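Q&A log
Question type: sequence-to-structure
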Amino acid sequence: MNTLWYKFKFAVQEDLEKFAQKKSSENAADRLNETICEAEQQTKAVGVLLDRQRVLRDEIVKEQQEAERMTDRRAEQLRLAEASGDEELIRYAADETENYRRRRDELRALAEETVDSMIQLERRFENMKHRVQDMRVRRLKLMGNENVSRANHRMDQIFNADLTPAQDGVSDDMEKTPGDVASMRQRLEKLSAEEASITEIV
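Response status: OK
Response body:
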């Protein structure tokens, strides 16, 4: 009966430990997997935004180059108008030259700002991708630790198992508690005392 009870207790304890260990590892693994999945999605979304920013940067640089060309052209036209002496033509050429210079300067500043921001974004994007890779490495480490823990737990169960042979057919005398043994000793002492009294009487 005792052996059956210990087997049942051992099985229940093992199941509870497995459940707790599995729940703990699953929670950590699940959280990490969700974080990695979300980070991968965010990385992909940021990559799309960077592609759009590159296209925008190229468009700004193209507009800047066109403004540079038109500014030089209008400046040359202003020089010719001033040589002709036509006041109305001079005013028109001067206004056009000023407009293109203003646009050119604005596009120069915007192109420089866009290029600088792209450099910073691309660096951060690279760091973001490294971070995702680090998360994947962490997941592998977690999986490895979990496997080691499970293997050690199973081996510990064997190493710590009670190897004393089970004795289902134990006699009543062997199952006596220390208190019962003491009682038996007292009874023997009493019998010995009674035997001694009878011997004296005789």
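Response note: The longest helix spans residues 2-84.
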